[in-house]
Write a structure and sequence with these properties.
With about 120 residues, the chain is mainly alpha-helical. It has six helices and no strands. It has two domains: about 1-60, Serine Threonine Protein Phosphatase 5, Tetratricopeptide repeat (Alpha Horseshoe), CATH 1.25.40.10; about 60-119, no CATH class. The protein is about 80% helix and about 0% strand.
Amino acid sequence: MSHLKNEYYQNSADALEMALELNPDIVLGWENLGHAYRNAGLSNKALNAYQHAIKKGSQKSSNFSHSALVYEKTEDLDNARYYSEKALKINPKDRVAKNILKRLKKLDEIKEIKQKLFR
């Protein structure tokens, strides 16, 4: 099942890439390409696509929060926090960004407890 899911997202990404070759100014195309890559597990490509959407003028909080998801998955927690905070500045109700920050806060608390225990 996982293989089929990844194949689906890769096929979606291939189609979006072709569309964006014809018209690279389609912001929604870059956003959807980022989603397809993220869901296919292609983190660097996903981040690149989200950055293209942002550079093309999309200031949707979802581009920032989904970038944060990718950073969180790749354990780049500083960038996960940064992009989550940017998303919340645009949309204070962005659930993805809020959830990422909650998880990061818990990680910070665990880290602090470990430091206290192992001084």
